[in-house]
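Bump. Still looking for Secreted protein structure tokens.
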Amino acid sequence: MRITRLLGAALLTFGLSAAAVAPAAADSTPSPGASSEDGAGPTRAGTSFRTATEFEQGQTATARASVGDYLYWSFPAGTGQRPTVEASVKLPETHAAETWRIDVYDGLRRRQACQYGAQTRTAAADAASVELKCVLRTVRAWSEPWANDPLPGTYYVRLTAVNLTAADLGQSVDIEVRAGSKEMGGAAAVDGSLSEPLVPGIALRNAADDQDGDGDGNDSPTAVLADLEPEDGWTSGWWSSRWVWTAVGGALAALAGVAGYRLTRGTGRPSRVPPGA
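Sorry for the wait, here they are.
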């Protein structure tokens, strides 16, 4: 009985220790969504998917634009992240009611639905600004070809005003766009992974112009991929909270096995029965 209690205590202690250490181990790695030192981002916006301005998660991209323009930015998102995109538009002093909309597309330019958030808002005529927000679904490591699940790679943000009056077109506005993400951990883990992230080429250049080229004389154009990626890479790494639950489950199974053995083996030979009986 003493051995059983010691074994049970040791297994339970191991399980609780693993559960306590796991969050610390997971939090010790900087999140791809962590802000930079100053949070400063680019001060311009693109006008198409191909000219979208890149910025890191945690940065704030700013731009001064005209009402009616289509504005584009892009940022990287890796496996296990749930990205959140926010936009703030400072409106001119005099304007009519305006409806602003923010859309997010993945690396294949598939529009991604927002789980929640004010993706479209109408600013009243006396409003000084309008705030938009889109919380995407969790980025998966792999998906069926026919599915529209978010996958690791580049994500495009498009911001524009719709249902405008002729008097409002061309007015100057100041815009701030931010992107961040929450790590969802093992709850969002799936089997399989992409061979390459969905990071499309944005330009063409000759290998001779590449300072990092091998100098093999190959001057054929090559795709220039987006420069930014999550700090921890496109995948979440080998560590997952599923390791914790696996260890705890193993400890509980061992305890159940020991308890079952103790209950079914009986009390042994009664003391009144001689050994040779």
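The chain is about 20% helix and 30% strand.

Edit: fixed formatting.
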